[in-house]
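Narrative of activities, Objective 1.

The group set out to show that a structural description can be obtained from nothing but a protein's sequence at a throughput compatible with the screening campaign. Below is one input-output pair from the validation batch, recorded exactly as produced.
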Amino acid sequence: MATQLKKTRLHELDSFTGDPQGGVLLFSKENKEYKINAEQLLPTNTVTTVNGADGTATINPNNVTDVILVLNDPATTLTISPLTEAKANVRVEFYLTVKQGTGANKITWPDNVKWPHNATPVLSFTANAEDTLAFYTLDGGTTWKGSLIAAGY
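Output recorded for this entry:
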């Protein structure tokens, strides 16, 4: 949360470059100066592993941005949880690495996932192979747009 500063004008401060540890971001709005601890602005990209169980897997984009999905069933139906604070024209994105556990496993994608040229990507089929996909929404999760960004690792 930003806290209002007193007496210091932004144009009077020296510029800062370097490690954000212990640093602050200063900004001005409506003739008032504010600061935010720089650590709050650093990305926190924790990788979460989801194991498809009984042919289903759920990704919750409200609290993850990088997911590894391990496939061990011949067919897995994927669900993307609804956004809790859905906002139009705000980009929400996540990465999904699909790892073939036993090999030749398939994913049934949610109906609200759209692909370039309406072509669902072909995933790797050998055991332990990995493919990475990126997903984003601009309409609060009504539609997710997916792209295969790396395949066959």
